[in-house]
Write a structure and sequence with these properties.
The protein is an all-alpha fold and about 260 residues long. About 75% of the residues lie in helices and about 0% in strands.
Length: about 260
Amino acid sequence: MLLRSVTKHVKDQNWFAVALDFFLVVVGVFIGLQVNDWNAQRVEQSLEQEYLERLRDDVEESRNHTKRVTTDWLAQIDHLNLVIDSLDKCEIADDEKDDFAEGLYNLGKFELAYLNTSTIEEMKSTGRLGIIGNINIRDGLSQLEKQIFYQERVEPQIIARLSPHLGYVSQSIRFKLTNLNDATKMTEKFWGDEDFKFSNVTSYSLDTLCSDSKFIASISFVRGALFEMMDWNTRIAEYMDTTLVKIEEELDEMRDGR
């Protein structure tokens, strides 16, 4: 239709009409490209918001898990404080015997910080990592990955340091487990889900333990290592908090129509 109009105006040598036709073509192409660009930007912003929401959920899950682990460690350290204090005095109060036995059973159990990287890995594999426009958020996620990766590399060294001490302690303690149900309950109590009497299945000679300075030193060493790892986890959890704040601020700006 427009081509026909241009041809007619050329034949008629109506140059003003020809110029107007070309102007309309240029304007139409420009508007079309602009609309396509706007649509592409809307799709990108929608996808960015979707990824940010998923990243927020991943980091929040990771933060909550890491903080829960740290809380469990605090309880374990309290038990170890009781163990060392009781060994120093060479006596255990009746109402503390279960905590004493639980401290020995959970000795050396630890869990490092956790990061759910499912969304990050998906973005990397699809080449979408750059869709997050806020460089502070990208840097925050990158730093979290580095911290977790470093912990994974260090974990074998931590285990190697603890193993001799745990091995020595285990020579003087016996846990009389007669069925799978008891073993399951002991594990569940570590996570705060069950009321289980560790003292009923724990066998040791208090006099022997009190006179064994190496035994006490080994427990003290493990307690110190737990403090170090707990501090590390706490700092990572705080960094997760900071990253979550950045993500929430970015999402708020998006919802307000940035």
